[in-house]
Amino acid sequence: MMRLRRHAHGMRTLFFRTPCRALLAAVLCLAACAAEPAIAPSPADWTQPANLGQGALRALAYHDSGAYLHDLAEVDAEAADWLAVRAPHVSRPALVLDIDETSLSNWAEIKANGFGHFNDGTCDALPRGPCGFDAWARLERAPALPPTLALYRRARQLGIAVFFVTGRHADMTNATAANLRQVGYRDWNGLLLEPQGSHFASAADFKAPTRAAIEKQGYTILASVGDQRSDLDGGHAERGFLLPNPFYFIP
Ligand SMILES: [Mg+2]
Which domains does the chain have, with CATH numbers? Predict the structure, then answer.
C-alpha cells in the first residue's frame, strides 16, 4: 500500500510497504502514463496572427523609453529646416498642423483606455481610466508635444502663417483653442475643425479640401504635419511630414 510519510521538517515522500506492491504500482503508473499523449515541443515555425497585447506592450515601451519623442523631434526638425529654406521664396508661406498626437498629446487618455478609443463616457477615473475622448478634450489638459511646439515657434519667427486643421468636431472649438493657448500655441491664422455632425470616410476627405481652401486665400502651404497618412494625403502642400504614431489609426 502506498502511503505518504511526513518528515519532521514537513516534507512528504512516497514509500511502499512491500516490493510486490511497489512493482504493482509501477505497472499501474506505466499504464496511466501510456494513456496520456506526451506533449511535443512547439515547432519553431509555429506562428500566430499579430498579437494585440504584445503590440500594446511594444507601443508602451516605445513611448516610455523616449524613442517616441526622439523620433517625433527628428521629423519636426526636418520640417523646420524646410520652412526656413522655402519661406523666403514664396508668397504668404503657411504651415498646416494637425492637433491630436501632433500639436497636443492625449497620452493620458490613450494609456488610461489601454489603447482603446471611446468618444463617450467621463474621465472621472483618470489616470487609470477609462476616459471618453470628448470629455478628455473638454478638460483642456492635453500637454503640448514639445517638438511640434518648437516647430510652431520657429514658423512664427519666420513669419509663417499657422493653420490648425483637425478631425475634432466644431463643438470642440472653444475647448481646443483654450487648450492650445494654455500650452503655448499663442496665436494662429486658422483653427479649422470638421463641421458638427459630419462624417468622412477618410480624414483626408476633410483635410485636403481644407488645405485647398487655405491656398485659395493666397497662402502657399510649405508643409503639412500630422501623425496619420490621412493628415497628409490629397496634396495641397509642398511637403508632408509624417510623425510617428503606433497608438491608433485614423483612416
Ligand atoms: Mg492626429
Answer: 65-105+144-242 (3.40.50.1000), 106-141 (no CATH)
